[in-house]
Specification:
The complex is a heterodimer. By secondary structure, chain A is mainly β. Chain A has one helix at about 10-25, and strands at about 40-45, 45-50, 60-65, 70-80, 85-95, 105-110, 115-120. The chains are: A mainly beta, B mainly beta. Strand 1 of chain A pairs antiparallel with strand 7 (about 70) of chain B, so a sheet runs across the interface.
């Protein structure tokens, strides 16, 4: 049996711990949740995005649909405790979809403080049933 | 004005949340703003009790037949908030509005009692 003698170096362990914590912090999710919070619904034809965003000015909501990407921009109200007047904060959120959607047929509605975006897959990409002819 | 504990959850599976709330006091009134996305003017029930104001907001959950929820960042549910009221509220003048999922309450204060001299008549 060989006795292996290690000299304990507390500084090396501390440095390693620090490095591990830093790496963990970088890999972990950001502490600030993204705005607006999104729920995504899907069927064979496309998607419906719902976003909770109360108090927006509908005219200032900007939705950009391009390929597999949807970007929602707007101005959200933030109530400053000091003045009590709503201030606005610009926001922009981009969502990557698992497949491309047709920009032309996209529809959006903002009511009751909820933004709903309907996106269809391009017609050419929808799977269709192929009828079999017996011959 | 402060918020106090909400009523216990009901037996149903409906969720209940406390809305994000901001309270501001001006010399004339208390102004309350609650974020209640999914609600419109038909959704809210506001009760003014002797010492508290109870706000109940019902939200219709999303129904998308044929669709599957594939990514969720928020849950839908009803909202409740209970406010402990100060004594000097003009109860007849309380106003509530909802617009784009934001409930605004205005609770005007009673005018401060003026000192008046009381005339004395012989009797």
């Amino acid at each position: 049996m060989r006795l292996v003698h290690h000299r304990w170096n507390p500084w090396r362990d501390l440095a390693r711990l620090q490095h591990d914590i830093q790496r963990l912090a970088q890999n972990s999710r950001p502490s600030q949740p993204e705005y607006p919070p999104l729920n995504v619904y899907q069927n064979a034809e496309g998607f419906v995005l719902k976003a909770e965003a109360p108090g927006l000015d509908p005219a200032a909501i900007d939705i950009d649909v391009s390929g597999e990407t949807v970007t929602v921009r707007g101005q959200r109200p933030v109530w400053a405790p000091e003045t009590g007047q709503p201030e606005t904060l610009e926001f922009s959120r981009t969502l990557q979809l698992p497949f491309a959607v047709d920009a032309q047929s996209a529809e959006a509605r903002y009511e009751r403080g909820v933004l709903t975006v309907r996106l269809q897959r391009p017609a050419a990409q929808l799977s269709r049933k192929v009828s079999v002819t017996a011959g | 004005m402060t918020t106090c504990a909400t009523a216990p959850a009901t037996e149903t599976v409906e969720r209940q949340f406390v809305p994000r709330t901001q309270i501001r006091e001006t010399p004339e009134a208390w102004e309350v703003v609650c974020e209640v996305p999914g609600a419109d003017d038909q959704s809210a029930e506001i009760s003014l009790e002797p010492d508290r104001l109870i706000v109940n907001v019902r939200v219709q959950p999303t129904e998308l037949p044929g669709y599957q929820l594939v990514h969720r960042e928020y849950r839908e549910g009803n909202y409740q908030q209970i406010f402990k009221l100060p004594d000097n509220i003009d109860r007849q003048a309380v106003e509530a509005t909802i617009r784009q999922g934001v409930l605004r309450l205005k609770l005007p204060k009673l005018p401060v009692a003026q000192t008046r001299k009381v005339p004395v008549v012989a009797g």
